[in-house]
Amino acid sequence: AVVHQRVGSVGGYHRRVVRNVICVESVADAQIGRNARQHGHEQFLEKTQPQVQRRRGENQTLERAFAQGVGSGAAWLALGRCQERLGDEAAGLLAVEQALRLDDTLADGWGARGSLLHAAKRLDEAAVCFERALALGADSALYGYYLASVRGGSAPQLAPRAYVEGLFDQYASQFEDHLVQVLQYRAHEILLQPLVANKQQFSLVLDLGCGTGLCARMVQQQAGAIDGVDISGAMAGQARASGLYRRVAHADLVPFLNASSELADLVMAGDVFIYVGALEAVFAAVRPRLRDDACFAFSVELHPGPEDLKLGPSLRYAHSAAYLERLAKTHGLRVARSWEASLREDLGVPVPGLYMHLAPAV
């Protein structure tokens, strides 16, 4: 997973206390936990953390050690991360702040404080922490991405691969249950229902960001073969196990598209571009793979503009309709169908989406 930050040795008894503490989890892992708690789904949170009981024991071990006067900045940081993972973000923030009082050169500590403040919607304070983490040598791609999400302005062209891969590797085993049942996700159905209703046949379908196969199941009765790709190895494994696919690649979208010249009748990407950002390279790679009568079907979070795209505090990208229409024209595509509808819910509020079916402009 992403940016695992483990406790280092700090001497003697303290070394024995923290030697096996591995609760300073990836940013992606912590984000999953925060999302589940924000939605009030503690049962899902427990499912996504099969080692949570062990972490409670580690948390208690650290607390006992601190009661005996043992505790460095690194150990307080470990305690804060344990408390965050166990759902007590207020206690986690206090512990991380104590870590920084003891050692204000901890880049991981500033990153952890920023993440906790980000979750608490204290975005300006979070930005200061991310800037401090970067100044101290923290992962520039990850914390630059985090900083852009809370500062606004110019955003990275795409989400860091390690962040997205780690997020969905952790999420894979509970992905469908949480997405469909908890977040009321229906984007795959909304995107593909017009094609299903027309009973259109596809000799080859390319499923970009295939996940566990939600889109593939929608069109399987109409498809001769479906090839999938996912940046997450765990998601790709789930897709292979589904039996829906001819083959599944664990790769980025553009290298996957460029690896073959076999023409497709349908290229689909349901709720995938929220982690891609700039789409020029994707459109350029999709176009040569389309038959003359093919469809490129995708959904995005809708950004009203005037910017082409925007990275929000949710750590997801939104795209404007004007940007997508311009990309389509530039790459020899036309808009066959376009409409707005919700993608999923976020804290019970529908997330506005834009759905597009593009066709070659021949």
Précis, in short:
This protein has 362 residues and is α/β, with parallel strands linked by helices. The chain has helices spanning 12-18, 27-38, 42-48, 52-67, 73-85, 89-102, 107-119, 123-135, 140-151, 161-171, 175-182, 187-197, 214-219, 233-242, 253-258, 280-286, 321-330; strands at 202-208, 223-230, 247-250, 264-269, 290-302, 309-311, 317-319, 333-346, 349-360.
Task: Walk me through this protein's architecture.
The chain is 49% helix and 19% strand. It has helices at 12-18, 27-38, 42-48, 52-67, 73-85, 89-102, 107-119, 123-135, 140-151, 161-171, 175-182, 187-197, 214-219, 233-242, 253-258, 280-286, 321-330, and strands spanning 202-208, 223-230, 247-250, 264-269, 290-302, 309-311, 317-319, 333-346, 349-360. Strands 1, 2, 3, 4, 5, 6, 7, 8 and 9 form a 9-stranded mixed sheet that branches. Strand 4 (264-269), helix 16 and strand 5 form a beta-alpha-beta unit. Helix 2 packs across helix 10. The chain is elongated, with a radius of gyration of 22 Å. The protein starts with 11 loop residues before the first helix and ends with a strand. Residues 1-48 have low confidence and may be disordered.
List keywords for this structure.
362 residues; alpha/beta; nine-stranded mixed β-sheet; 17 helices; 9 strands; disordered N terminus
Secondary structure elements and their pairing?
Blueprint: H1 12-18, H2 27-38, H3 42-48, H4 52-67, H5 73-85, H6 89-102, H7 107-119, H8 123-135, H9 140-151, H10 161-171, H11 175-182, H12 187-197, E1 202-208, H13 214-219, E2 223-230, H14 233-242, E3 247-250, H15 253-258, E4 264-269, H16 280-286, E5 290-302, E6 309-311, E7 317-319, H17 321-330, E8 333-346, E9 349-360
Helix pairs in contact: 2-3, 2-10, 4-5, 5-6, 5-7, 6-7, 7-8, 8-9
